[in-house]
Amino acid sequence: MSPIRPRITTALLAGCVLASASSTAEETHYRASLYLWGAGIEGETARGAELDVGFDTLIRNLDLAFMGALEARRGPWTLIGDVVYLNVSAEGGATLPIGGGPRIDAELGTKGWILDLSGAYRLVERERLQLDLLAGVRRLDLEIDFSSTIPGTRERRASQGAWDLIGGLRGRIVLDQRWSLPWRVDLGAGQSDLAWQALGGVSYRREALAVSLLYRHLAWSFDDDERLDHIRFSGPVLAASWHF
Hints:
- Residues 1-25 form the signal peptide.
- The chain is mostly beta strands.
- The chain has helices at residues 4-25, 55-60; strands at 28-37, 40-45, 50-53, 62-74, 77-97, 103-125, 129-147, 156-174, 179-190, 194-206, 209-221, 228-243.
């Protein structure tokens, strides 16, 4: 046999191994999540109406809700979509001012959604630490109805929509093969004066399924002449994620 043939065969095998490794590294990995966000809602309208609705009130009066996220990762790049939809009719949890005098309790109806679309680039990939740089957009679309049965008061409505550009960081501290500490912080602005988020907690993963317990705070601030001065959602998150 010619000595050239073994060299050619070896070179071809090496090329196949390298191509296979490159292909594996560039496979697209997905993560789908469904979660329950025990968020209380706090805010204030430009006319002085205030809302402070705890999660216990929301869950008792919930009409419809959906909370979920989907990620697609290829190499160092990740695309992320996250959506929250709420439709709540709660007795209490809000107050209305009467003239410049006392405040009265009011019934509250809240309907709206929050959409996050962002991209991430992996800056650090180590055995115990992962760190991503984030950039994207966030949409808030919220409608709030206040009403009271007390004579002399009338129903009020406040609605707010905003598109904001956001940027931030997210990461994961890996404790062992199953336990980790995920976190995320971001902030931005656009149609709102300021939009920001902070999230962190603990995650347990076994094979393709991960369960996470987190705390999430999401807030917006607006101009004084807007219908809503500010709005905040905050509370614990219980999430189930499937990796495939």
